[in-house]
């Protein structure tokens, strides 16, 4: 048994795996042998017959000339049909490969669309949970009109999220991104995220601290960015459990000392158990989860957000004692 890919093993030996492959050298050697064999027999027999029928040198020359011309014509026709057969086989093989490539491409597109749909469904579920909690708060605040107005305002924001994600889901068939590029004010976006995630059932008994620089922003896809930050916060909440502490921070740092364009960095700290070295390379893979009831799709939107904004993701130790998820985006804009 030998390893073919990481985590995949084959029980066939190299000889068994290559048993169905053609050996070009051996096939060419056999073809050359039979060609030389039959040509040698032809030359000897035809030469003997020409010598026995020729009564002069001139007659022998004519017979040899006709014999050579006939040999060239016959072998030329043979090579034509052999070449035609080989090229037809090559053409058929190329057509088969093209059909297989098209089928593989269609399969990959369907798998990608299914994965994106699953990720959006995961995000929709989180948002619906927030909306459900807001409805419960409205029911409990029927005697307080001010609270009701505030909850209704937040509920409208949540329904706008759901509407946007539904549009993204329907746009998968068109292979387009319906989330438009716009200027994102980080402090305003943090306030919106704070108002919404505090209603999530998994964050009811968790301390949330938001630290954002004022008048800081960047051009990006707001819905995708907001959902990515929300999923990072919810993921940290699952890690810490009730009574945990989560710190959400934005800051500006130069990419290099000589770089004139700084980067905007978003950090989500928690005081949970942290992420082991073995899990760091797997945690952003689709459908990978360490929870019994998890789907492994929450952090997929975080990875997608970083990629669509040409950023990068890091997981390091947090100052709170748990994990720090850091998303770095370039091309910071300080004012709108």
Automatic annotation (TrEMBL):
It is an enzyme of class 2 (transferase). Pfam families: HATPase_c. One of its GO terms (molecular function) is protein histidine kinase activity. GO terms for biological process: phosphorelay signal transduction system. The keyword Cytoplasm does not apply. The chain crosses the membrane at residues 21-45, 65-84. Residues 119-333 form the Histidine kinase domain. Keywords: ATP-binding, Kinase, Membrane, Nucleotide-binding, Phosphoprotein, Transferase, Transmembrane, Transmembrane helix, Two-component regulatory system. It catalyses: ATP + protein L-histidine = ADP + protein N-phospho-L-histidine. Its EC number is 2.7.13.3. This is histidine kinase. It comes from Candidatus Wallbacteria bacterium HGW-Wallbacteria-1.
């Amino acid at each position: 048994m030998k390893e073919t890919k990481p985590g995949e093993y084959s029980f066939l030996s190299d000889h068994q795996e290559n048993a169905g492959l053609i050996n070009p050298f051996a096939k060419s050697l056999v073809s050359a042998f039979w060609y030389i064999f039959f040509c040698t027999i032809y030359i000897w027999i035809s030469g003997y017959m020409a010598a026995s029928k020729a009564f002069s040198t001139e007659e022998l020359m004519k017979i040899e000339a006709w014999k050579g011309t006939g040999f060239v014509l016959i072998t030329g026709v043979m090579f034509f049909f052999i070449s035609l057969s080989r090229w037809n086989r090559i053409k058929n093989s190329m057509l088969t490969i093209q059909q297989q490539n098209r089928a593989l491409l269609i399969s990959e597109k369907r798998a990608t669309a299914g994965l994106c749909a699953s990720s959006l469904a995961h995000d929709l579920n989180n948002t619906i949970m927030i909306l459900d909690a807001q409805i419960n708060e409205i029911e409990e605040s029927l005697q307080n009109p001010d609270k009701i107005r505030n909850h209704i305002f937040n509920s409208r924001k949540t329904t706008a999220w759901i509407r946007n994600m539904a549009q993204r889901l329907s746009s998968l068939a068109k292979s387009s991104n319906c989330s438009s590029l716009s200027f994102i004010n980080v402090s305003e976006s943090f306030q919106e995220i704070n108002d919404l995630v505090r209603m999530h059932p998994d964050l009811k008994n968790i301390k949330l601290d938001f630290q954002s620089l004022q008048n800081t922003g960047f051009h990006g896809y707001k819905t995708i960015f907001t959902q990515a930050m929300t999923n990072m916060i919810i993921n940290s909440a699952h890690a810490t459990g009730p009574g945990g502490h989560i710190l959400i921070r934005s800051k500006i740092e130069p990419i290099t000392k000589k770089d004139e364009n700084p980067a905007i960095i978003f950090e989500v700290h928690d005081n949970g158990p942290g992420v082991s070295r073995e899990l760091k390379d797997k945690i952003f893979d689709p459908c990978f989860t360490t929870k019994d009831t998890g789907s492994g799709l929450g952090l997929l939107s975080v990875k997608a957000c970083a990629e669509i904004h040409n950023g990068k993701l890091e997981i390091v130790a947090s100052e709170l004692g748990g994990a720090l998820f850091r998303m770095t985006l370039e091309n910071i804009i300080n004012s709108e």
